[in-house]
Amino acid sequence: MKQLHKHCFTACSAECLRASMLLILLLSVASSATAQVTRYLNQGNTLYGQKRYKEAAADYAKAVAKNPTYTPGLFNLGNSLYQQKQFDSSRKVMEATEKVAKDKGSKAAANYNIGNTYMSQQKWEDAIDAYKKTLRANPQDADAKYNLSYAEQMLKKQQQENKDKKDKENKDKKDDQNKDQKKDQDKKDDQNKDNKDNQEKDNKDQKDQEKQQPQSQPSKLSQKQAEQLLNALKEEEKKLQDKMKKEKGVPVKMSKDW
């Protein structure tokens, strides 16, 4: 039994030894990875302090690649992208930071920087939402309060400018419509005037033509023609009287003949 126990004890010791070696190896690897993450973070911080933001972002990205949930690496990467005016990329990194952050302070800082990216793009409503999230996590954040107030003022100004712009566009549109209507009316008036002028001209031309046409003049007879006409009339009258006498039977005087 002892041997058996001894044998069993020896076997268990070998298994435990292998587990211990594996744990030591994992701790060593983890320690090495942590050291690399820390080294990349420190290098990035040095470059960031020198305003070499692009190079700093490269080191922060390496730290995040080693540990995707490493909050300092994510946060500083977002900041370096922001300094390069890559606001959309910076915001995505800050959103990832806010998700993995475990304490309210880190979440508040991430939301604050998200608000800053929106402010830089003049997206006032989104910035207001981000700063409100910051203040819910850290009500004492004076910078967030200031930026929130500023964003609210800028939003009101933007809304007023948009309203004024819309009112001006509507006014300009109405003015253009009135101008078009007046132009059409003026065109109609001109056409009517032209038609009236043309009609008056036609009437005038017609009257002028009538005045220019020769008027019929009474014919003048010569003295000889007048005498002939008078004689003809007398002759006709005589014939008419003779005819009437015959029709009435005028008595004829008889002379004695013996």
What does this structure look like?
- The structure is a single chain.
- The chain is mainly α.
- It has helices spanning 2-49, 53-66, 71-83, 87-100, 104-120, 124-137, 142-212, 223-248.
- Helix 1 runs antiparallel to helix 2 (53-66) and helix 2 packs antiparallel against helix 3.
- The longest helix is centred in the C-terminal third of the chain and has 71 residues, at 142-212.
- The radius of gyration is 61 Å and the shape is rod-shaped.
- The N and C termini lie far apart (229 Å).
- The relative contact order is 0.04.
- Residues 1-14, 16-30 and 250-258 have low confidence and may be disordered.
Q: Can you give the helix content as a percent range?
A: over 70%
* Biggest sheet architecture: none
Based on DSSP secondary structure assignment, what is the total number of beta strands?
Answer: 0
Structural class: mainly alpha
Number of helices: 8
General shape: rod-shaped
Give the end-to-end Cα distance, rounded to a whole number of Å: 229 Å
Give the topology string: H per helix, E per strand: HHHHHHHH
